[in-house]
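Why do we care about 3D structure at all? Because function follows from shape, and shape follows, mostly, from sequence. That is the central idea of this module. The next example makes it concrete: a single protein chain, its amino acid sequence, and then its structure expressed as tokens.
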Amino acid sequence: MVKNFVVDYIRFKNYIETHAVPFKQVQNPFFSFLVASPIIRTSYAISKMGMIFVFYAVIFFDEKWLKDFAIIISIIAVVVSTLRAFPPMWENIAKKL
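And the structure:
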């Protein structure tokens, strides 16, 4: 939750200063790939949809394998989310140094 707040704040602040949408705010090509590439955006969307689907499935079906799968999907979603959030924060910090 803290990461989301910080990233949203940085993106909004950069938008106010540059009028660039979040996907265009990073300059480094590798960081741009992590933030804006169709592969990463699609994998993030699929992992979040999968996490929501599995969350509701766990509520209705008490299966151990389903709970294990939910944990794996949640970890994947958190990792991809963190990978996408890191570049704007890093570039913002690097600009200030």
